[in-house]
Amino acid sequence: MMMNGLRYRRWVAAVVCLVATTMVRPVYADAGDFGAMPGLWKIQVRHVENGKAGAPTVTWHCVDEGADPWTTFASWTPAHGECTTTDPQRRTTSLTWKLTCKGSPEASAHVDFDSAKHYTGSVSVEGHGEVIQVEGSRYAACTSPED
């Protein structure tokens, strides 16, 4: 089933909002075995349209030692609650999952760490290709709870 342009843009807009939420269903494992450093992280999210990435939306967040990787680095579910996360796969340097959204083609997402201080990831929609790019970089230790 093809989505019309407006419906597709709305769905993609909802996916963009997902970075701010932490509603991914967690897979329970020792968070300490995940290869990411705690500290202050800069996250850049780019919306991809017609194969071109747009200007980044930047957010900052402090990652505690032992934080759950699923709620820290894979918080990509729409706030509307119309999407469900399935097939979560976790390795020491990557996370992959599927998003099934009401009335939309299935999407797949991933986060891959090339070091303990940097990762890239994306969301791809079946039949539309990559719709979101994300990049995270650790900048410093967290200095207060407000970081």
Automatic annotation (TrEMBL):
Keyword Signal included in the entry's annotation: yes
Top-level taxon in the UniProt lineage? Bacteria
Which InterPro entries does the entry link to?
A: DUF3617
Which residue positions does the secretion signal occupy?
1-29
- The question of whether Signal is a record keyword is answered with yes
The entry's keywords: Signal
User: What is the protein name given in its UniProt record?
Assistant: DUF3617 family protein
Source species of the chain = Luteibacter sahnii
